[in-house]
Amino acid sequence: AQSVTQLDSQVPVFEEAPVELRCNYSSSVSVYLFWYVQYPNQGLQLLLKYLSGSTLVKGINGFEAEFNKSQTSFHLRKPSVHISDTAEYFCAVSDWPGGGNKLTFGTGTQLKVEL
Amino acid sequence: DADVTQTPRNRITKTGKRIMLECSQTKGHDRMYWYRQDPGLGLRLIYYSFDVKDINKGEISDGYSVSRQAQAKFSLSLESAIPNQTALYFCATSDITGQGNEQFFGPGTRLTVL
Predict the structure, then answer these.
(1) Which residue in B72, B35, B65 sits closest to B51, CA to CA?
(2) Closest by Cβ to B101, choosing from A32, A36, A90
(3) Largest CA distance in chain B
(4) Chain A 79-98, residues with CB within 8 Å of chain B CB atoms
(5) Is the CB of residue B104 less than 8 Å from the CB of residue B92?
(6) Which of B43, B66, B42, B37 is nearest to B53 (CA)?
(7) CB proximity list for B82: less than 8 A, separation 6 or greater
(8) Cross-strand bridge partners of residue A14
(9) Segment B17-64, tens digit of pLDDT
(10) Pairwise CA distance, residues A93 & A86, whole Å
(11) Of A45, A21, A47, which Cα lies nearest the Cα of A33?
């Protein structure tokens, strides 16, 4: 069975500072990894995904994530955050095409950007 | 227009009432999902459907049922609502050929059971 751990439930950061949101996963097979963002009162929107190839993945709004197989991690980073980045961020793992084609989500990290 | 729509967006109901949440999509995807979101717990899968004739239970299906009326419509029912079903409910879709099972989410339905 696959699982996702997001160790930080809340991350406060000042505007223009860098940020890293941590995600660790466990799975017995090859995985596909995702970061979704949820802005207040909205649904989830895909930020970026890792399927194969380069371990450094770039997404929307200046975010990037690095897949580290040996550490089973997929941490999300942004070099300089903006107030508009305040949202909840979810890491998710899929073992598609096997394993029932389902996504397993972490518990989320609330990013709060302050002036 | 939104690709995945959910109705209603907000609903307050009483314990014991039957309630239905509806999801429609214009993406042409075969696969549809229902999740609930609770603070600190992330999203948990309730039911999923890979086509009109295929319905599967997720990790927390007790107390819920679903109906896949057409490729584009997937409804979630609470036969007898209870307060601990108060949550934010999301519908999602994915394409059978979608890379890594990327899913597309609706805006959510906030359900309160009194």
Answers:
(1) B72
(2) A32
(3) 41
(4) 90, 94, 96
(5) yes
(6) B66
(7) B15, B16, B63, B113
(8) A114
(9) 999 999 999 999 989 999 999 988 999 999 999 889 999 999 899 999
(10) 23
(11) A47
Are the C-beta atoms of residues A104 and A93 closer than 8 Å to each other? yes
Tokens 């979630």 belong to: B76
Q: Test A94 with B100 for CB contact under 8 angstroms.
A: yes
Residue B47 tokens, joined: 């039911």
The answer to whether A10 touches A107, Cβ cutoff 8 Å, is no
Residue type for position A98: G
**Chain B contact for A60 (CB, 8 A cutoff):** no
Chain A: nearest CA to B17, how far in angstroms? Answer: 26
What percentage of chain B carries pLDDT values higher than 70? 94
CA nearest A38 in B: which residue?
B107
Provide the token pair at B8.
């209603």
* pLDDT tens track for A89-100: 999 998 765 555
Q: Which of B24, B33, B43, B60 to mutate to test the interface with A (most CBs of A within 10 A)?
A: B43
Q: Does A108 touch chain B (CB under 8 A)?
A: yes
User: Residue A28: CA atoms inside 13 Å, Cβ hemisphere, count?
Assistant: 3
